[in-house]
Amino acid sequence: xxxxxxxxxxxxxxxxxxxxxxxxxxxxxxxxxxxxxxxxxxxxxxxxxxxxxxxxxxxxxxxxxxxxxxxxxxxxxxxxxxxxxxxxxxxxxxxxxxxxxxxxxxxxxxxxxxxxxxxxxxxxxxxxxxxxxxxxxxxxx
Length: 141
Prior knowledge:
By secondary structure, the protein is mostly helical. Among the domains are: 40-95; 101-128. 89% of the residues lie in helices and 0% in strands. It has five helices and no strands. Helix 2 (40-75) packs antiparallel against helix 3. The longest helix has 36 residues, at 40-75. The protein is extended.
């Protein structure tokens, strides 16, 4: 019995150490994805491949939604079906910034909502930016 426990315990310990070593890497990679702007290749790939595919998915979803609408109404889930089959692909097609990942798009929307919710803070930030810009222009002259 002792012989069987050692390999299992060693495997569990090695796996735990491996996961613990990867944790900072994963979190920094996720942060990098949110902070970075989309690159040229991501923008081109999105425009040429992803957007047409998402437009096609929206059309197919609309067709499926229309075909299953009577059953959705009977089940009371027509709003959920519309969200899943039509609205989500349409939003990804037409509202998402070109080349953005879902995390970048979510971050951009959060920032927009924050700006709308805090107009006074935006004015103060703009005033501070203008003040800093005028200070910088005086130093250059």
